[in-house]
Amino acid sequence: MVERRSTLGILAHAVMILGVLIVAFPLYIAFIASTHTSQAILQVPMPMSPGGHFWENYLAALNGHGGGAGSNAPVARMMWVSLVTALVITFGKIAISLLSAFALVYFRFPLRGLVFWAIFVTLMLPVEVRISPTYKVVSDLGMLNTYAGLTVPLIASATATFLFRQFFLTVPDELVEAARIDGAGPMRFFKDILLPLSKTSIAALFVIQFIYGWNQYLWPLIATTGEQMYPVVVGIRMMIAGGDSGNEWNIVMATAILAMLPPAIVVILMQRWFVKGLVDTEK
Amino acid sequence: MAAISLKNVVKRYGIGPKANQVIHGVNAEIGDGEFIVIVGPSGCGKSTLLRMVAGLEEVSGGEISIGGRVVNDVEPSERDIAMVFQNYALYPHMSVFDNMAYGLKIAKVPVADIKTRVDKAAKILELGALLQRKPRELSGGQRQRVAMGRAIVRQPQVFLFDEPLSNLDAKLRGQTRLEIRKLHAELGVTSLFVTHDQVEAMTLAQRMIVMNAGHMEQIGTPEEVYARPATTFVASFIGSPPMNLLTGRAQGTRFAFGGADLPLPAAAPRDGELILGVRPEHLGHASVAHDGGWPLTIEMVEMLGAERLVHGRIADHGFTLRIDGTLVPPAPGSTLHLKPSADHLHWFDAATGKRVVA
To answer: Which residue stretches of chain B have pLDDT < 50?
Structure first.
């Protein structure tokens, strides 16, 4: 590792560049495709440099003037639905997990062990496994085609609860005791001491859960029936009509690029926090 | 003001016959403004006792009162105490100022008051320049001072210290010890200080409590504890090297043990099975045999600077003697003749280990 030989350096760089190309090439294709007319893309070979229809295609996608064979719903609305859904899921998950981990670690109540294991066991039951009963409940409650229907079933999170529990267990007991002597009650301790200490874990979870919420496909697909409530991930699929119908691939690709932006922005912005959290461990 | 009274204090973990009792009925009356050190080996229950006074551990039996008020069921924050923890327990995300001010903020002390009190404490502890720093930017000694500052600003009736010096290096520990004494002289607040280090105990205490296996062995001034240990445990725990303890049979002015028959300078308090204790520094010695001398076969001599420790055997029983470092050391293998004095012999019951008074 510490050796600095030029051949090794070149090899390392070659491997890394190859990796970047493999990851980046599909993105590049999608971007190129989103800047041409639909006829231009279908030519062989497909153009490899940006075309001149960037604004046209993106505005068409956002406002829903695609005119292809599939759905023509405006992407702006879908992005909004996705954003609200992802944010509600993220904040809901973080809030509920923080509080339940707090209860599990700092309070002695009957059946505490059982509760912990019950939460732990749900790790084995992802949304897909319990999708039929969940659908039944949500539809009986009249929550189909609502933000509540899109988010509530996804908010409970065993993973996040577990993560916070493990973090809280590393907080020294003396800190709790010092707070008790200082006269801080449980919620005061939670707000003034535990929450600030969990900042970096919260940031990490925010990134993970936002992407999780944004990328939800299966659940929104069955919990929504109208274009009004499609998140963008479902929307893309709806734009593509099956068979030999003439899809507006340039608009589909523009939508795909748009759908990728928010998670990318979240990762880029929160990455700083990540690194900061890793560098100065406040414990 | 705030005297502390412990009446038959008991701590048990668990309930029923399987309960594990760790404190067995401690009784102590601590005067207002006194500096008391609780000392004992690890696991003797000294920290548990302190935490019971703080209210961090429940009291299983007996009564603890602070300033005349029984506090068994009073929340720690209502007991008018402040505690300094072994690892300081500073809030990592708060500045030094906020660490000290946190308790006052919760108690809804006016902001201007908080500032004066924190500034005053910072001045006493020379933390003025560090108030805006975070704990991680401080050295161990500075963190320790912040922990003390947090205790001082509360202006409590009682200070509780749970081994606050054990994370400092030797030099800083000596320095901080002096500072704590100065602080106590200045503020005059009743203090309970837990440590396993007998030097800390001897130097800081006005009175000390020696604990062993959940029992209070002795309470007294350092002088008393050193000069008249109440049990063989105290005799061997306080003092370095520890007191020599010989188990044998006393008969008038003779003491028989392990095949030897030692002459005594005065009659033993009673005849029969007894433990004879004598501190390494309380023996004269001569290289020639004399009346009433105890023969010590030298095995090894340690040089400590001002003094030497002479390790040897009396009738196959290990025995240590402390002599002036400037004297010519006796050669290993030779025999020294020890001269005990009646004032410095301690007698303990062989069965109970308790001091036998003449």
So the answer is: none
Instruction: Let me know: does B220 contact B214? Beta carbons within 8 Å.
Output: no
Chain A positions in Cβ-Cβ contact with residue B82 (cut-off 8 Å):
181
Q: Which of B77, B88, B92 sits opposite A182 (nearest CB)?
A: B77
Q: What domains are there in chain B, each with its CATH number?
A: 4-236 (3.40.50.300), 241-349 (2.40.50.140)
Buried b (16+ CB within 10 A) or exposed e, A118-139: ebeeeeeeeeeeeeeebbeebe
Cβ-contact B58, A144 below 8 angstroms: no
Candidates B82, B88, B90; nearest CB to A181: B82
For residue B90, the distance in angstroms to the closest alpha carbon of chain A comes to 7
Q: What is the ipTM of this complex?
A: 0.81
Is the CB of A183 less than 8 angstroms away from the CB of B82?
no
A12 phi and psi angles, rounded to 5 deg: -60, -45
Please report the pLDDT score of residue B358 as a whole number: 63
Say what the pLDDT of residue A281 is.
52
User: Read out DSSP for A143-175?
Assistant: -TTSHHHHHHHHH--HHHHHHHHHHHHHS-HHH
Enumerate the domain spans of chain A. 6-63, 75-279
Q: Write out the CATH class of domain A75-279.
A: mainly alpha
Distance (Å) of CA B211 to CA A55, B39, B221, B237 = 82, 6, 14, 10
pLDDT at res. A68:
65
Task: Report the pLDDT value the prediction gives residue A283, as an integer from 0 to 100.
Answer: 43
Q: Does B209 touch chain A (CB under 8 A)?
A: no
The interface residues of chain B toward chain A in range 103-142, judged by CB-CB distance below 8 A, are 103, 106-107, 134, 136
Flag whether residue B10 sits within 8 Å of chain A, measured between CB atoms: no
Share of chain A above pLDDT 70, in %: 92
**Residue B335 exposed, middle or buried by CB count within 10 Å (0-12, 13-18, 19+):** middle
Kindly report the three-state secondary structure assignment for every residue of chain B: CCCEEEEEEEEEECCHHHCEEEEEEEEEEECCCCEEEEECCCCCCHHHHHHHHHCCCCCCEEEEEECCEECCCCCHHHCCEEEECCCCCCCCCCCHHHHHHHHHHHCCCCHHHHHHHHHHHHHHCCCHHHCCCCHHHCCHHHHHHHHHHHHHHCCCCEEEEECCCCCCCHHHHHHHHHHHHHHHHHHCCEEEEEECCHHHHHHHCCEEEEEECCEEEEEECHHHHHHCCCEHHHHHHCCCCCCEEEEEEEECCEEEECCEEEECCCCCCCCEEEEEEECCCCEEEECCCCCCCEEEEEEEEEECCCEEEEEEEECCEEEEEEEECCCCCCCCCCEEEEEECHHHCEEEECCCCEECCC
Q: Which residues, at least 6 apart from B227, have a Cβ–Cβ distance to it below 8 Å?
A: none
Interchain contact, A177 vs B83, CB within 8 Å: yes
Taking CA–CA distances from B102, the nearest residue in chain A reads A182
pLDDT band for A67, please (50, 70, 90 cuts): low
Q: What is the mean pLDDT of residues A6-24?
A: 92
